[in-house]
Amino acid sequence: MCGLIAYLKTSDRPLDPRLIEVMTHSMEHRGPDDFGMCFVGREGPVLWRSANNLPEFREKGVAMGHRRLSVFDLSEAGRQPFLSPSKRFTMVFNGEIYNYVELRNELIQHGFHFSTDCDTEVLLAAFEKWGADCFQHLNGYWALVIWDDLFKELVVARDRLGEKPLVYAQVDGDWVFASEAKTLFKHPRITARPGEQLLMHFIANGSGPTGEDTFFSGIKTVEPGTFLTFRDGTISKTRYWNPAAVSLPRQTNDAVAIQEFNELLTDAVRLRLRGDIRVGAMLSGGLDSTSVISCIATLLASQPNESRMVGDTVQAFTASFPGLMNDETKKVEDLCRLTEIGVHKIFPAKEGEIEKGLTQVAWSLEAPFYSPVVIVHDMLMKLVRSTDIRVMLDGTGSDELFGGYDWYIPLAIRDSFRSLRVCEAMGNIEGWRSKHGKSWLNGVQRSLIPGFPQRVESTLRSIRGQPRHWYSGLFQSELQPRYAPAVEGKNFLDRALKVDLLQYNTPRWVNMIDRISMANAIISRSPFLDYRLVEFAFGLDNNLKIRNAETKYILREAKRNVLPASIVNDHKKIQFSGPETHWLKGSLKNFVLSLRDGKDAKLSRLLRADALRDLIDHFFGSKRPNSSRMWRIVSSEAFLRAYS
Fold this sequence. Notes:
Elements: E1 2-9, H1 17-25, E2 34-41, E3 44-48, E4 61-68, E5 82-83, E6 89-97, H2 100-109, H3 119-130, E7 140-148, E8 153-158, E9 167-171, E10 174-178, H4 181-184, H5 196-205, E11 220-221, E12 226-231, E13 234-239, H6 254-271, E14 278-282, H7 287-302, E15 314-319, H8 329-338, E16 341-346, H9 353-365, H10 373-385, E17 389-393, H11 398-402, H12 409-418, H13 422-434, H14 440-447, H15 454-464, H16 473-476, H17 492-502, H18 505-519, E18 523-525, H19 531-538, H20 553-559, H21 565-568, H22 580-584, H23 589-597, H24 609-621, H25 627-643
Parallel strand pairs: 14-15, 14-17, 15-16, 17-18
Antiparallel strand pairs: 1-4, 1-10, 2-3, 2-4, 5-6, 6-7, 7-8, 8-12, 9-10, 9-11, 12-13
Helix pairs in contact: 2-3, 5-25, 6-7, 6-20, 9-10, 9-25, 10-18, 12-13, 12-14, 23-24
């Protein structure tokens, strides 16, 4: 776990090694334990830790820098940049390879020898053995840059689901890569320029950048599941993993599928307990995080050697909001009575705490965020940092894999009707009424909506429902719906889940989790995003995800005799977040009112002052205010204040 920087020098402009040093140390928060830098040119690799006595690099080559948060093999042997024994390959790597033990044993059979106990050495050996095909062998998350000195080729790669960030820019004919955009901005000719049109779309409908775009003009991101190759002035992009192509249902009965799922989830958790530092878990009280904790408890009981870094009991971290609708304290207490875990709580409600948190996370996140969950997550990571725990497991990804949101149910009903499975459709309609408090007619009507992608549909409704005079004249003509290309899928539910996993929900969640946890030098791991579970989920038929309007059916069945009934049978989805309206009208009220005055509002160049005043007045005066839109305005302002 770390921060990386790589500078591919293809121009004749001299490169000051002190610039590499400054850019590297700007990521100290991501890697407080160790650091290193190198330049590879005609004379081979030059490693250094201080640029004081180094001349400028005038020849073509590649420079690398690395800040390390030690996880596997805490000694200096794991220091990066990392060179292969032959000196042919040089690598900087951010992430973790969970199956490095198994890969190491396999590579030993192929004649490789290892001098460390870290996953970095195993990863570079895997690349030396299989080239870019090595990514198919990896279970983990990564952003990496590898220089092949024989072919003068740079390979830049990102993990399957983009859990680890990797951004880049071109400047004066050279290419610069880093874990964070703010590191790129240390370069004197790379400027932080927020993408105003993308911000407009975010404010209008909550949509973020897709593909290679970021919220900064001129800054690109390496797409998940792809690698870039730079050689002889040419660039090629290769997609090595595409779960959207997994469409065939598994021909198996319920019992076999549930058992296979349980084994996969337990093994995903087992791999994510590896390391040489202490491990804890996030706890919201919902099904996803409690399922992860139950797997940890099972492993503690049955395989204590695999779980040695957990301790005698699982240490869980949660947020409590007494008296508010999104408080899940009771479910947390139910779990504690059944499972011996230690619970650490935060109560984010102090005056000034929320606004201070907003300012901090805007800088860390490098983007606006659609929910105050980002502030809660930052507070939790600070609490974790005050303990001896440095690795946290969470439940991210379960909803998008197994149909965890109510809006998926009408899609399942529609698919059942289309497949002439009338009994299945009627079961979902009845469950829509009995479990979710909706009418039969509502279920039928929503299932018959024309079948274009749900996110496009909601985007169109959002924009049509907003007066165009809210936006400044500069962007009115350009404010059109933005959405990512359609994905492959066997039915409506399958496509919606893949859109949310690959393009919408999960990308913004994993970006938030990485940026906020690493801002506090904490490592986050998400067992549900194990690629084996993802491929398994996309191979399941609908009725193992949603049955009788019971969302995440396979997960509930797997944990029915393990977790409290109050958790397994609770169909009221409470997203892990913060009390949005409560904070906007309370702790953040002065911040919102400062935008109404408009004098110092960065958003004034995007939103007309009179329209912004109308929006704010309506928000405070309405009994049912649009708090989601107001939050997007507030977080966009915080982002602009941080980077413009």
